[in-house]
Amino acid sequence: MNQKIGVIGLGIMGSAISANLLEAGFTVTGYDIRPESIQALEDQGGSGAGCVRELADDSDVVITSLPSVAALQDVVSGPDGLLTAAKTGLIVVEVSTFPIAAKQEAFEMLKKTGTVMLDCPLSGTGAQAVTKDLAVYASGDRQLCEKCQPVFDGFARVNYYIGEFGTGSKMKFIANLLVAIHNVASAEAFVLGKKAGLDPELIYKVISDGAGTSRMFEVRGPMMTTGKYDEATMKVGVFQKDLDIITAFAKTLHCPTPLLSTSCQIYTQALAGGRSQQDTASVCAVLEDMANVNRNSGC
Fold first, then answer.
1. Cα 42 to chain center, whole Å?
2. Phi/psi of residue 100, each to 5°?
3. pLDDT per residue as tens digits for the range 254-265
4. Mean local confidence (pLDDT), 229-246
5. What is the distance between the alpha carbons of residues 212 and 37, in angstroms, rounded to a whole number?
6. Cα–Cα dist 57/52, whole Å
7. 15 and 43 in contact (C-beta within 8 Å)?
């Protein structure tokens, strides 16, 4: 367990990954544009870096967990980015959800400096990340993915090798399509049950133990039961990026996604209602408004 791990992006997902890697015995250095996030890592026993280049120089494997394509571009080719480190043999594990073309561009730039990027998006919410309940969809150089398996084991429940670079993202798009639909379906079920006079807590308990359950029902059901969405494990505004990516990807393949399209309308209404910083479970509140259900009395 002598690999030194760098984590760039210490948000909801990156901070949980860092904490679990520290718990697993890895040496972890982190970088984030927010000083308070670096301080939180240091308080847990990790080290902070002043810039991306400094982090890369002190790492064997770098994990990037980023909010946007612009952030990825800055991390790779910015003034103190990975390209300035030019560290031969460095492995970059990109775990964000971005268009494949954006990751491919970063891959090609890093390759010229002797750095190899792997496309390894994650399936799971921020809350699941805290408990290591994540799945890694690893793609790219197979030997390097296998070399990183102990790292994956340090922060995830399971990892799968999907294939050549980019296939991990394709699998993530499919996973997030289901997440988007199942989350709205769960909210719709809660609202229908509540409108019928059923207790939300009883709905959660009974449905979680039957054929109608789903991972999203089980993960987001507690928030839908209480109607409290401010402690987000996936923010509506961030998830909108994922929805746009999946929709565009399906369109390039001329593949119909009618259930996703319908679900996207509910997320758009959540954004329009000022819920961009709330958890995606807040689609329950959107459906409550449509059904004229009093959210203060449950769900």
1. 23
2. -60, -35
3. 999 999 999 999
4. 95
5. 39
6. 9
7. no
Predicted pLDDT at 87: 79
Rg of the chain in Å (alpha carbons): 20
Q: In the chain, what are the domains?
A: 4-165 (3.40.50.720), 170-297 (1.10.1040.10)
pLDDT in tens, 256-292: 999 999 999 999 999 999 999 999 999 999 999 999 9
> Hunting for tokens 């408004």 — which residue is that?
289
Cα dist from 271 to 19, 229, 233, 297, whole Å: 31, 13, 16, 23
3-state secondary structure of 294: coil
Q: Is residue 295 predicted with pLDDT exceeding 80?
A: no
The one-letter amino acid at 51: C
Q: What torsion do the CA atoms of 171, 177, 183, 189 make, to the nearest 10 degrees?
A: -120
Strand-pair category, 47-48 with 116-119 = unpaired
Residue 299 has pLDDT above 70, yes or no: no
Distance in angstroms (rounded) separating the CA atoms of residues 181 and 113: 41
